[in-house]
Amino acid sequence: MPDRIDDYEALLTKNTIWLKRTQGVGRLSAKEALSYGVTGPVLRASGGRATTSARRSRTAAIRTTTFEIPVGTEGDVYDRYLVRIEEMRQSVRILDQALKTIPERPRQRRRSEDLPSREGEGPDEHGRADPPVHDRHRRLLVPRRRDLRRHRGAERASSGFYIVSEGGKSPYRCRIRSSAFNNLSSLKHQVEGELVADVVACIGSIDPVMGEVDR
Fold it and tell me: DSSP labels for 139-183?
């Protein structure tokens, strides 16, 4: 992977065409990004207060590793590209440290018959029985009318979760704050005054998952 990142940079980072199509395009200041609720690399590329990472603040295993949080200054398409390039390097750095902490022990395959089954559920629409699966979530009982709010660092940015319980196994209400939805909402501001062709570059720099936006 580190060699591949070098290849990406050799191809793009100082490429004249790449620079002309990305530098100064789709600018988004830190204040503007925060006003849209933007998170992740899109926010960090804008600089300012965008210097935190849910990985460092929320994940105990990550807090024991050494890595840098890349932050941009211009908030344009090019900075969003640079932030992601450096995040790949930092991810490799985290993995390299994590691999060294794994103790040596014999590998064992977990047999399918050792996994809990879904008791009380019938066959699917094709008449096939459900395969054994982990069912931990079915055994979780949360106090009645308990409100719970949490956010987690996802693949592209921070996702928020709001759950209301009635004391059963399933939530009474569940709301997911999609990072892609908020990030994409900043597109209108980014493309003001830009060329139509630059819209594609701006969307690519946001890196949205449209199914997540729709949700």
Answer: G----EEEEEEEEEE-SSSEEEEEEEEESSSS-SEEEEE-HHHHH
DSSP 128: P
What pTM, to 2 d.p., does this model score? 0.73
* ∠ CA 24-25-31, rounded to 5°: 80
The residues that bridge with 152 in the sheet, in sequence order, are: 159
Instruction: Report pLDDT digits (tens) over 111-125.
Output: 555 555 555 555 555
The token pair that represents 184 in the structure block: 């994409």
How many Cα atoms sit within 13 Å of 124 on the Cβ side?
A: 6
For 86, other C-beta atoms within 10 Å of its C-beta total 18
Contact 62, 69 (CB under 8 A): no
Beta-carbon contacts of residue 84 (< 8 Å; ≥ 6 apart)? 41, 207
* pLDDT for position 134: 46
Cα–Cα dist 176/62, whole Å: 24
162 DSSP β-pair partners: 149, 175
CA distances from 125 to 122, 128, 129, 130 (A): 9, 7, 10, 11
Amino acid code (one letter) for 155: E
